[in-house]
Write a structure and sequence with these properties.
The complex is a heterodimer.
Chain A lengths: L2 H26 L3 H26 L3 H34 L10
Chain B lengths: L1 H20 L4 H21 L3 H25 L16 H16 L9 H7 L8 H9 L1 H22 L15 H24 L7 H17 L10 H25 L10 H24 L28
The chains are: A mainly alpha, B mainly alpha.
Chain lengths: 104, 322
Amino acid sequence: MSIYEIFSVIFCLCGGVFFLAGTIGLIRFPDTYSRLHALTKADNLGLGFMVLGLVFVSGSVPEAIKMGLIWFLALIGSSSACYFIGNHMHISSQSGKKENGPGI
Amino acid sequence: MGLVFDLVIGLSLIGVAWSIIRARDHFQAIVLFITFGMLLSLAWTRLKSPDIAIAEAAVGAGLAGVLLMDALGTLSSSRNRPTHGNLFILLIPLVVLAGLMAYAIMFIPDDFQGLGPLVRKSMPDTHLEYPVTAVLLDFRGYDTWLELGVLLVAVLGVLCVRRASTIKGSILPAPAEPVGRWIIKLLLPLMVLIGGYLLWLGAFAPGGAFQAGVVLASGGVMLWQAGHPSLALLPRLWWKIIISSGFVFFLILASSSMFFNDHFMTHPEAKIWILGLEYAATLSIALCLISLVLASPGRNQGIKTRPPKSPEKNSCSPHSPE
């Protein structure tokens, strides 16, 4: 087992821990705002660690760049989705409507 | 290890499918359906079919989810739980289907290798390097042609329901939204780039017209969601031309080959024609899917009063009465 593979396993495990934490937070947190917190922060960090771990064992530089791009796009996607959901919640709570978050 | 992973995917597919049936309300069912699509695309990846996996993730989980959310926004009164009284009637087709599938699987001959060897043997007859694209555009061109037709008919059907002759009336841009505009500026060039990349990749690797079209279509839907008016500026004639271009170009190519060699649905010898066909198909798939999303009922009323939102959040907004 080469040093790269060991690094890869360590980083991927780190990513898995963050994903697990994010998922537990998503299930256990009481309202939508804190769920967003769990979903967008922990999962993005987890994905980042996974990508970092996989970069160590990727065969070529273009492959590594593509994986980095995937992480970058996921960051943009999840942070903006977080903004939209939070904004929607904010607006609908201001206009006096009670909305529950998706109960999943 | 692979077997464990496959088992987890297979069992979660069945579990998610069961929860879709038992879902509390339609919103939960749609979210679970999107989950089902993502899991299914993982399963296709495990079956070494990246083409289907991309298409499933983009269409089955992405755009179909948006369309279903739209439909839910229209059927706003459907808060009540779906009835479960007649679930047992479903058991009959279920058992028949399961029996047929088991029968089909049990009687696969041991030395059966699928159609792979046949396709590989016929590859010199076509001018494409990638077998899947060769099957889609050359060997089974009929299927692809009819699929483009199905998309076209679907758009026409939506327009009939809307009693509109074009989607133009329904493109009322959502309110201008700073974050949305910023994302558009960042993502849209990347989406066009990735769409073009997938299209070009189709000649020799997983990718192709459908995947590229879906990526472009999601870019268009995002453009609309961010309140950008550029889609509304598309002239009606161009909209008609592009939306039917894939189907029509395929038909023209297929019938023109009758003049050169006496078979319907055979391509001329040059690769340039297939490339042109791919481009036309991509554009028309993209515009068809955009039109399906934008022209779906429920878009035409109350749009200006709705708060800005991302595609995933459509159903959560209270639907204004029409």
